[in-house]
Amino acid sequence: MPDRTTPTVDKRNMTVRITTGLVFAVFFLTLLWHGDRPWAAWTYLTLMAVAILGGVREMTLMARVRGFNPSLATGLLVAWGILAHFFLVTGNSDPLPLWAVFAGGFLVIHFGALFFDPKLEEALPSQAITWLAALTLGFGLGFQQKLFMLQGTLPKTGSRLVLALFVITWLGDTAAYFVGTFLGKHKLAPRVSPKKSWEGAAGNLAGNVAGAFLMVATVCTEWTWVDAVALGLLMGVAGQLGDLVESTWKRSAGVKDSNVGVAIPGHGGILDRVDSLVFAAPVLYGYVHFVLGFN
């Protein structure tokens, strides 16, 4: 019998993960290649809207496991409103300002519950979770949409930035998995995610920085090595915090995966795939906008 203490990789699950990832990569890279076409922004908007639907649904179902009753419909409307804001705002033109989205959200989430929520005794946590789902998915994926639409001196600036977001984040996740599996000894947050280690976290940051340098050498050639180090570290820390935050939600709900019944083969739920991205995307946008001056 094999030594139970010997680190192992689930080869079957890894094969499924890689296969699913390759299918997604073909679609995603095709979209990015055509990022300057008029239809590309609408296609990416549709992709983000579908991802928001999946994420809000998963947060809603996790909360219902604990007996709360957040509203999928109103949380989704507010999240989509935030996404639409990022899609529509250009320069000084803001057809759908955030104040209008939040005002409408207040009406549909709180007043709507008076008429349609059968469990008003859980109104406080239920409505708070509805807002949490809307804000987390709306802003996290809305910033991805904003990145896709940014313009710079290089052609397809937005496509380059979105590709950088995914490569930097996912190289970090991959490095964390293998470093944590074979070298992890010191628990990072045992109450939240017992398998995560400080060694894996360090590997994650190394992977993030390596991904940033890869982007400097290939698609984001305007970045300097200082930008690569800064973005790798900032996005790495933000992404790992996002991962831990989602793990906290799953643990509080008593579920192993966020999908609650519907999974991406080999990858779990939508939240399991975007937890790092929804925290890393605002960091990347903030850096390229305020430090590098992209608009």
From TrEMBL:
Stretches that traverse the bilayer: 14-33, 39-56, 68-90, 96-116, 128-149, 161-184, 205-226, 276-294
Compartments where located: Cell membrane
Pathway: Lipid metabolism; Phospholipid metabolism; CDP-diacylglycerol biosynthesis; CDP-diacylglycerol from sn-glycerol 3-phosphate: step 3/3
Superkingdom: Bacteria
Record EC number: 2.7.7.41
Membrane association type: Multi-pass membrane protein
GO molecular function: nucleotidyltransferase activity
Catalytic activity: a 1,2-diacyl-sn-glycero-3-phosphate + CTP + H(+) = a CDP-1,2-diacyl-sn-glycerol + diphosphate
Alphabetic keyword roster: Cell membrane, Lipid biosynthesis, Lipid metabolism, Membrane, Nucleotidyltransferase, Phospholipid biosynthesis, Phospholipid metabolism, Transferase, Transmembrane, Transmembrane helix
Family classification: Belongs to the CDS family.
Protein's name in the database: Phosphatidate cytidylyltransferase
Organism: Geothrix rubra
